[in-house]
């Protein structure tokens, strides 16, 4: 009894947690079904029932799918369906994003029709990057519909099912009254961050008739983000120095309010209170300041004291007004808006639930939308400050967009002249966008940058492609100043003569701003970069202090695992660090374009290990030093991957080429060659290349390096050469295609393949027949990736491997005679045996028509041969013609 009570208590606690403690979780997917078409109008076979994608997803909504499928094998006569039903009065549970609910026009429900005894509802919902998962939905049944739903889930894409971590394994459905279902999975950590999570609903009895149904609506999946670092503050309004107007007037008199702080340009972050449409000349309203709050206070936080902590008060009437928040998101993604809100006793919502209505624009206000919003409205509370949090991550168009505008409108009780609603501590936050990397595709060809595309007046944010800035300190942001050396303010700068287009990238540090700038490269050369030459010109644009004991310095560092200038681990590169060219002279402006104020830097960095496809950052950091800092910059930057030499295949295989497995001679090599075969691996890569000196097999067990081997491609291969079972190969670290369309040349015709010089190359054996007793698997069920058969040319028997990846697999044996083309390989415990040949595709069995000869043309010849096909005697030749070419009447007449 006590155990039963304890289990029941746990059940109630977990159910309560599912409905309360997760109230602030992030919405991952949402189905409201309001735009669901009518579906099937009558019962159909289950395979004809269409799936339903999520209406909204913070991940990829195309991968969030509801399907109605058989739970077991059903007969061909079994039919059922689902369709859309109009909303009902009690269908209001779990409504999100302000969509239509209840009996409102446009509200639909998903109606799951009977029979459902052999069916199941599967809700596929990847939980990637989320934990503490909660599923919520509304459900009901008709009077003759099923009375219970049972629930379980899968973490392996539906291979196995469990109820181990579920808070609610079943639920009773009420007739014609909607129920709210909330299910948590906190008992099973494998549900978290799982791309293969599926929730299943099985429908109880009565479920085997053609009448009755259950209904589902407003299905949501919610969770907590995994490992998301605190987002960066982008724009902030604290309104503490805001005054507004003293009385109502024309809307044109209401001036916009710029952000108090911005990591971008605060002059472009603006909140405006403007008419939503044309208003009469008598329409009058205003906004002013009153006592604020501190819930969402950030920078410049002040105590809640009248006169020092203000908020923005939007006065009524506001029925024709809207709040437009111009919020550039340049360099940011995953945008979140937060602010504090309340209304006065006679403000909007005084006699009815107050609402703020939200939408946004990605084109500076030309058009507005709601599809990326987690919520589209919010309630206001009378004289109590609330924190409003709005996520806009559902629309990628919001990210990195200088034209993003957020709009707020109020309803109801907004047309009178008394009352107001209030805003304070408005913030926009987001994650830094990882910008593009400069692709390095060629060796000995320098990448050059002169920074002349940077701004030459005012404040700038545009950086050359692949270059970034990162500032720390209380005044740090994502913009730079333009200067000719006259300013001593800490900042990142575009240095140059006033308004001139010749620019240099530089900095001047202070106690409140520490500049960092750098460049981001991606290695697309096809080989590991082991050394590079970096060059640039140091320019001095300002002297901060005369005869300083130690010159001002800028320090260089490098990272191969950073994602931004502010992340990853960094290794100091002293050779690329620099000091002021001059540390004596008149304090103030210098001309950095003069040779006397410059210093050339050119350094070769050895010992690098940047793999193909890998990335690397170079960063320069300017620390604050005692006294006033110098203004230093770099110009005419160059980065050159030094030339590397690729090894000829024969040299790379030697001494392995003699068939001697010698791991002591394994070493990393860069090879260049022409591809001879398609990929024969199902998990990685296995193909052959050739150059002018030989052939080699290239192998990667599990990686493809985003390359699909195509015959005729010219490629670079980098990896370790080795030998296994006397087959020489290169274990791949990287692959890079140079170009395609090469012809590998004709195969070498041979009588024997027991030769290391043929290994991994293409050989041709003429006059072949499948040998007596040969085996050929036509089922396609063979194991070990293929099967071995045998063929003969009349004197030698050859092992022939038919790979599971070729188009010969599962097909009938080829007609013979034939000439066989294929790749020669070896698998043996001895150096001189174990050779076999593997055709790449069906066309490698050359069964072209053999020329025919009359008997008198070959009677008396010492060598019995037709074309390239040898025969041991004239009897074999005649038999061959008789059986294979059916010249029966010809032979009779010739005799």
Describe the protein.
By secondary structure, the protein is mainly beta. It has five helices and 56 strands. Strands 28, 29, 31, 32, 33, 35, 39, 40 and 42 form a nine-stranded mixed β-sheet that branches. The protein is flat. The N and C termini lie far apart (104 Å). 39% of the residues are buried.
Summary tags:
5 helices, nine-stranded mixed sheet, seven-stranded antiparallel sheet, disordered N terminus, 895 residues, flat
Tell me the overall shape: flat
> What is the C-alpha radius of gyration, as a whole number of Å?
38 Å
How many individual β-strands? 56
List the total number of helices. 5
Percent of residues in helices comes to: under 10%
Percent in strands: 35-45%
| Derived structural class | mainly beta
- Looking at how many chains there are and whether they match, the oligomeric state comes to single chain
Runs in which pLDDT lies below 50 for 5 or more consecutive residues are 1-23, 300-306, 656-664, 857-895
Q: How would you characterize the largest beta sheet? A: 9 strands, mixed
How far the N terminus sits from the C terminus, by CA atoms, comes to 104 Å
Average pLDDT number: 83
């Amino acid at each position: 009894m006590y155990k039963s009570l304890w289990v029941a208590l746990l059940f109630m606690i977990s159910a309560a947690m599912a409905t309360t403690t997760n109230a602030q979780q992030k919405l991952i997917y949402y189905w409201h079904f309001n735009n669901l078409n009518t579906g099937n109008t009558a019962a159909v076979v289950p395979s004809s029932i269409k799936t339903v994608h999520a209406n909204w997803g913070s991940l990829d909504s195309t991968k969030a799918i509801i399907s109605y499928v058989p739970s077991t094998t059903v007969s061909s006569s079994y039919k059922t369906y689902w369709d859309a039903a109009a909303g009902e009065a009690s269908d209001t549970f779990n409504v999100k994003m302000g969509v239509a609910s209840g009996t409102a026009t446009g509200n639909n429900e998903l109606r799951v029709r009977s029979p459902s005894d052999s069916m199941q509802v599967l809700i596929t919902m990847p939980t990637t990057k989320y934990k503490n998962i909660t599923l919520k939905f509304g459900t009901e049944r008709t009077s003759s519909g099923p009375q219970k739903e049972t629930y379980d889930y899968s973490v392996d894409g539906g291979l196995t099912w469990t109820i181990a971590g579920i808070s609610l394994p079943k639920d009773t459905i009420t007739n014609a009254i909607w129920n709210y279902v909330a299910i948590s999975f906190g008992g099973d950590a494998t549900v978290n961050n799982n791309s293969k999570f599926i929730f299943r609903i099985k429908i109880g009895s009565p479920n085997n008739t053609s009448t009755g149904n259950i209904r589902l609506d407003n299905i949501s999946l919610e969770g907590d983000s995994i490992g998301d670092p605190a987002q960066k503050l982008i724009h902030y309004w604290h309104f503490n120095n805001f005054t507004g107007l003293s009385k109502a007037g024309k809307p044109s008199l209401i001036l916009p309010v710029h952000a108090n702080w911005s990591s971008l340009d605060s002059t472009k972050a603006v909140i405006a209170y403007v008419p939503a449409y044309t208003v009469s000349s008598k329409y009058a309203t205003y906004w002013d300041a009153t006592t604020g709050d501190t819930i969402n206070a950030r920078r410049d936080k002040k105590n809640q004291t009248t006169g020092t902590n203000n908020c923005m008060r939007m006065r009524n009437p506001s029925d024709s007004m809207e709040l437009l928040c111009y919020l550039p998101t340049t360099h940011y993604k995953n945008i979140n808006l937060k602010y504090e809100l309340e209304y006065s006793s006679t403000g909007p919502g005084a006699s009815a639930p107050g609402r703020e209505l939200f939408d946004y624009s990605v084109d500076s206000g030309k058009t507005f939308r709601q599809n990326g919003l987690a919520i589209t409205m919010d309630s206001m509370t009378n004289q109590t400050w609330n924190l409003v949090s709005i996520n806009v991550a559902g629309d990628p168009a919001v990210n990195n967009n200088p034209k993003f505008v957020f709009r707020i409108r109020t309803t109801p009780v907004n047309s009178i002249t008394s009352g107001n609603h209030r805003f304070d501590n408005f913030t926009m936050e987001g994650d830094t966008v990882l910008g593009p990397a400069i692709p390095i595709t060629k060796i000995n060809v320098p990448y050059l940058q002169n920074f002349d595309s940077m701004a030459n007046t005012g404040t700038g944010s545009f950086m050359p492609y692949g270059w970034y800035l990162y500032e720390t300190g209380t005044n740090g942001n994502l913009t730079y100043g333009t200067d000719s050396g006259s300013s001593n303010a800490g900042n990142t700068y575009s240095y140059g003569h006033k308004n001139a287009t010749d620019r240099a990238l530089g900095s001047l540090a202070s106690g409140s701003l520490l500049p960092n700038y750098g460049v981001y490269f991606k290695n697309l050369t096809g080989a590991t970069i082991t050394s590079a030459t970096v060059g640039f010109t140091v320019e001095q644009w300002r002297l901060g202090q005369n005869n300083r004991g130690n010159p001002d310095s800028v320090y260089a560092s490098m990272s191969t695992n950073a994602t931004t200038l502010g992340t990853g681990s960094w290794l100091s590169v002293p050779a690329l660090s620099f000091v002021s060219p001059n540390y004596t002279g008149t304090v103030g402006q210098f001309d950095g374009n003069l040779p006397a104020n410059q210093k050339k830097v050119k350094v070769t960095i050895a010992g690098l290990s940047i793999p193909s496809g890998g990335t690397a950052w170079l960063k320069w950091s300017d620390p604050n030093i005692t006294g006033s800092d110098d203004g230093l910059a770099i110009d005419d930057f160059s980065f050159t991957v030094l030339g590397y030499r690729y090894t000829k295949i024969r040299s790379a295989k030697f001494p392995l080429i003699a068939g001697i497995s010698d791991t002591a001679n394994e070493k990393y090599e860069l090879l260049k060659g022409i591809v001879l075969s398609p990929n024969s691996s199902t998990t990685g890569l296995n193909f052959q290349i050739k150059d002018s000196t030989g052939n080699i097999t290239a192998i990667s067990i599990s990686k493809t390096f985003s390359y699909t081997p195509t015959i005729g491609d010219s490629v670079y291969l980098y990896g370790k050469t080795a030998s296994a079972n006397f087959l020489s190969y290169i274990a791949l670290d990287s692959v890079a295609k140079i170009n395609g369309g090469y012809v590998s040349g004709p195969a070498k015709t041979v009588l024997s393949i027991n030769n290391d010089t043929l290994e991994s190359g293409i050989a041709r054996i003429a006059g072949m027949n499948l040998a007596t007793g040969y085996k050929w698997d036509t089922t396609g069920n063979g194991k070990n990736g293929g099967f071995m058969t045998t063929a003969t040319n009349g004197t030698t028997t050859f092992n022939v491997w038919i790979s599971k990846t070729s188009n010969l697999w599962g097909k009938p044996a080829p007609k013979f005679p034939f000439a066989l083309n294929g790749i020669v390989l070896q698998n043996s415990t001895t150096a001189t045996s174990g050779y076999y040949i593997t055709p790449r595709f069906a066309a490698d069995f050359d069964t072209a028509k053999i020329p025919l000869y009359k008997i008198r043309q070959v009677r008396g010849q010492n060598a019995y041969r037709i074309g390239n096909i040898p025969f041991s005697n004239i009897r074999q030749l005649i038999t061959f013609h008789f059986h294979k070419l059916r010249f029966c009447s010809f032979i009779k007449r010739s005799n």
